[in-house]
Amino acid sequence: MTNNTLYTAAGVLAAVAVSSPASKAATQQGGNRDRRPNFVIIITDQQRADLTAREGFPLDLTPFADSMAARGAWFDHAYTPCPASGPARVSLITGRYPKATGADSNHNIEDARYIDDLFGVAHKNGYKTALVGKNHTYMKKGDADFWCPYNHLGQEGAKDTLSSENLAFDRFLGGTDFYASFGPSPGTVRQQIPYRMVSDALKWAEENRDDPFVMMLSFPEPHNPYQVCEPYFSMFEGKVPPARTDSTALPVKGEKFVQLNRMMKLGHKGYDKNLERLRTTYMGMIRMLDDQMRRFVSGMQDLGLYDDTMFVIISDHGDYAGEYGLMKKGAGVPDAITRVPMVWFGNGVEASGRRDDHVCLTDIFPTACEAMGAEIPLGVQGRSLTEMLGGREYPKEEFRSVMSEAGFGGQYFTREDSEDYIKEGAVGKKGLFFDELNTWSQSGTISMVRMGEWKLVFDMKGNGELYNMDKDPSETDNLFGKRRYSRIQDTLLQELLKWEIATEDPIPVPRRRYWFKRNPHNYIF
Fold first, then answer.
1. Packing angle between helix 271-302 and helix 63-71, nearest 10 degrees?
2. Where does the record place the modification 3-oxoalanine (Ser) (predicted)?
3. What is the pLDDT of residues 157-208, one digit of tens each?
4. Measured CA angle at 443 (ends 442, 444), to 5 deg
5. Among the four 19, 123, 185, 344, which has the fewest Cβ within 10 Å?
6. DSSP 157-218
7. Alpha helices in 322-428 (DSSP H)
């Protein structure tokens, strides 16, 4: 794996760690008690957390995920470590924050620093591994026993194996310029990428049902291109409630948001006129994904694998979905793009329903390690959730807050520096393509901490934002610097500083003499 050679075996062996107890997951929720549990990550791309009936959204977009949330556990304070796919996914499989991996943008994921990752630990502990769907990490073919990649524009690899219907559909996706289709997509749901992925995943699971395995079922949707076939295209027509804010909130959010909207209009002709259609299609895509998750889990039940499998449903980051008059992501760290769905169910998960613990995608890898009975590698900064999910005692204070970060560093790059969006690659020459992750939107460094109803955002220049999320979920009333809120502001500044110090990269550890102490279950605090 990338950069494993940075840390010598001697250095690692010299670091004496307090061992994390092996997980009790294999004996929870039925299943084969002599078999170690499978671990399946069902991950979507760019799915907003609050568009669910379980959180009060008026449309029933995720009936299956909601049903499993009731049978297992779901977190309404789950966050991505970074609202961009590459950095978030690298953090997911390494359990390390972007500032530790060094992969803080989509363009340097191959620079990731770590000792071991999800599939590496699985292999060393006798597990088979499968990646079905979107990768967008440093991993390459050969890092998984089953490598079945799809991306936003179709299936990767040899096209001569595709049926004529699937080939035609992938060609249709290639003609969308990563933007949208404003009519129903051609074909049926069987041509859609999620359907094809579930078929591939179930076939592999059936062939490997006698061995424990780790699988990432990684859907490229509901990321743009926003497209979906019937009946999903029309399912929510005329029923989508308006977003809480519109483009009039952009000046309040700041120059990055204003500029993002400006570039979006340049890159996507007719953007304002099409915004409601985009939102309706986006929600149809979420429902289609939910139906395919149901199909996958039902297939696992038919194979007799459900009771032997721990499942988690997540997304790498959210989508503005019309908030501030924007789609996709790109500017800032509002909850629309940093808060993610997280639902756990299956082996080792006690039915507890909604949880208000603050958790992160970095917590999934150490949880998987303990589920497999494996040691959590050095350098992992996430915390195992096995005790919490199993209904056992755990320190509530450990999960009282969570941190997220964004930006690749340096100073903010502004319109005064350049407006050549085409040369940089942010806007297409024909006005059909727009990449929201660009020099202007991603420059600088910003961190946020969420604790209870409060959220603090701070950047490298000392600019602060403070929001009461219960009263101001769209984060448009900045309370930072107001005397009335000075006590909570100081508390959150201390909490963010605690997080920043606690997540400094611990590797490489001292090569000689010193004993490196770790908390049970990799708790940080």
1. 50
2. 85
3. 878 889 999 999 999 999 999 999 999 999 999 999 999 999 999 999 999 9
4. 120
5. 19
6. S-GGGS-HHHHHHHHHHHTSTTTB-SSPPSS-GGGSHHHHHHHHHHHHHHHTTTS-EEEEEE
7. 335-338, 364-372, 386-389, 421-424
